[in-house]
Amino acid sequence: MVVLRKAFASLLATVLLSTQAVHALPKMPAHNKHATHHTRLVGRQQRIQAFSPPSQYQTFGTEGPEIGAFGENWEQTVLSFAANNFGMDPAGMKWTSGFLDGNMGYGWISQTLNGIPIANAVANLAFTGGKVVSFGSNFVDLSNSVVPTPKEGQRIGTFLPAVEEALNANYTLRNAQGEIGEAVLEYYIKPDRSIALTRVGHFRNEETGAYLEAFIDAITGEIVAVNDFVSHSAYNVVPIDEQSVEDKLITLRNTEDLTVSPAGWHSNGEFAFFHDTRGNNVHALLRGVPVASGNQNSSYLDDYEVLAGPNLGTNPRAATVNVFHAFNALHDVTYRYGFNELAFNFQGNNFGKDADFTTKKNAVDNIIANVGTVNARNQAFIAVPPDGISPIVTLGIFTTDDLSAPRKDSAMANDVLIHEFAHGLTNRMTGGGTARCLQTFEAAGLGEGWSDAMAKYVSMFFLFAPDANYFDCSSWFAQKSVTTRDFVIGKFLTGTETGLRRFPYSTNPSTNPLTYKDVSVSVDVHAVGEVWANMLHNVYAALVEASGYSLTHFKDATRLSGNVVFMQLLHDAMKLQPCNPTFVQARDAMLQADVDRYGGMHSCVIWRAFASRGLGTGAQTEGYVESFEVPTFCT
Q: Which cofactor does it need (predicted)?
């Protein structure tokens, strides 16, 4: 039985009132298009605007509405709850994904028309102990909308030549014989609030690294919208030889965490064992080929000579080994904090750990990492398609037009590797594995911020001993105690004091002055990300100051030390927040995550840290209005 409490009924009334017929949705000020729009320049200079209807999001602490007990068909219980409280026929909703993990449950639902999902209308619920703890939705009332019928749609092959030309990318469902696989039908709510019936296809350009999800009008062939699976990281770089870098490697042995990688790092998870840089979690490839070990004991002992340049001697092999080690270690650490098979992580074999759940994770989506990519100068990026399709990491060489300046390999910059891996984590965990829910300008900026924060955090973990050879040690190893020092990302690649960002990440406003209002004037997702990452830096520092620092953080996520709590909340909040979250919603998800796991014991610490950078209780998405206030119970 579903029980609707007064507070939740009030919320849903607000949702329904604010989501009248699509054409009646209010237009927002230009600066708030950050939260709902993202204009991309793709392919052959095609400017395409993606859109996500404004979302409503509510967290309930411990006072959420009762959802009832779950049986075998628990996903149907979630669907019925959502349908009843939206006042909609269950035929207008479709289960997308979900899972039960410990005492928590998570479900993602798509709005449908004519039984076909609406790509950019998503709801999500999280629950524990028979109660809903958070609810998000950007469903809309479509009763007055003109809706194309499925029979009007044409096959994607009708439009492919023009679409591939415009996107400068190839359709991925075409085999060696040229036969074309049919793209699925989905509706799409356009920025002008009209409804399009679209064919949805994936398009790749292996030379440029482009990886797009395109929504093609199934009637006219117009490219309605694109989701970009690539998190772009192209930088203006002037590498100068100002760092002291050691010229030797530290040898590590038996570094696998066999609890979370039970077959080790060099197995496909079944009966095949590799003596090269391939395994169940990662395939690290040097120009398309894995690097073989020097012997049958899987030893990889190539030296890296920094001054020799990235393409000389054994440097390319050493760089590939470093990538293999880094991504495997990140798999194992983040698994401990919740990025596991159920939560759409990257593995070729799931060891049956998702077999008891309705939403079964597709296998064979371990990371494919390409090292020494010739056409990726001054770039490092990851393409993160939906669950079941391998993410692809491209790692280029960083150089300048000054031929005397040393070139540096992004494969040896572990803060950059962590940044890219974190893009994979956040894109998979937000939105239930669809990789569609960090696509608006503001949400994409949050993604950049989480990636920088993860790079900072894992570096504080002292996880990768070899990195002492490639980083300025004052930034990489400094965060080993309750004293949180400033952090610079990309210092190895740039040789500059601020690295790849405008300011170091710091709790000192004189060192890093960014606050919430700076989002409104940001013209690049990385600039938005800097604001969020520095807020998270302040949250991290406050938690460590209040609760101390654990040295067993990468294998023990049960500690109550500040650094462990921070990483756990970062993971937990991903599963709670709505599709394409705003700053305010991401903050609220983190606070709710603290209630769910720790009973809210850190809430005031978190509130004060966010408020110190303008994201206090009165902060508003519309106009990016700052607030430095905290709840009265924290004063």
A: Zn(2+)
| pLDDT single digits (tens) 244-299 | 223 335 565 667 777 888 888 888 877 678 888 999 999 999 989 998 876 655 67
Q: Are 480 and 468 within 8 A, CB to CB?
A: no
Structure-token match 């050691």, residue found = 246
Known binding-site positions: 232, 419, 423, 448
**74: CB partners within 8 A, 6+ apart:** 100, 105, 358
Read off the pTM.
Answer: 0.88
- Contact between 358 and 75 under an 8 Å Cβ cutoff? The reply is yes
Q: What phi, psi does 253 have (nearest 5°)?
A: -125, 145
Hey, what long-range contacts does 40-46 have (CB within 8 A, 24 or more apart)? 40/226, 40/228, 42/167, 42/168, 42/210, 42/212, 42/226, 42/228, 43/166, 43/167, 43/168, 43/169, 43/210, 43/212, 44/165, 44/166, 44/167, 44/168, 46/166, 46/167, 46/223
Residue 47 clears pLDDT 60, i.e. is over it: yes
Give me the mean pLDDT over the 55-63 stretch. Answer: 94
User: Cβ contacts of residue 56 below 8 Å, gap of 6+?
Assistant: 11, 14, 15, 18, 19, 136, 137, 138, 578
Domains, in order of start, for the chain = 56-137 (3.10.450), 156-228 (3.10.450), 234-436 (3.10.170.10), 441-459+473-634 (1.10.390.10)
End-to-end CA distance of the chain: 40
Phi, psi of 418 (to 5 degrees): -65, -40
β-bridge mates for residue 212, sequence order:
203, 228
Beta strand 282-286 with 367-371 is parallel
Backbone angles phi, psi at 2, to 5 degrees: -100, 125
- Please report, in range form, the residues annotated as the binding site for Zn(2+): 232, 419, 423, 448
Measured CA to CA, the distance from residue 635 to residue 633 in angstroms comes to 6
- Amino acid code (one letter) for 406: P
Active site residue 213: no
Q: What is the pLDDT of residues 159-174, one digit of tens each?
A: 999 999 999 999 998 7
Provide the pLDDT for residue 230: 92
- The two three-digit tokens of residue 199, written as one number: 């064919």
Q: What are the structure tokens assigned to 220, written together?
A: 């006219």
Query: What pLDDT is recorded for position 141?
Result: 85
Q: Which one of 75, 420, 530, 626 is the catalytic residue?
A: 420
% of the chain exceeding 70 in pLDDT: 83
Q: For residue 398, list its beta bridge partners.
A: 408
Whole-number Å distance between alpha carbons of 13 and 86: 9
pLDDT of residue 14: 40
Beta-bridged to residue 135, according to DSSP, are 58, 125
| Cβ atoms of residues 604 and 537 within 8 Å | no
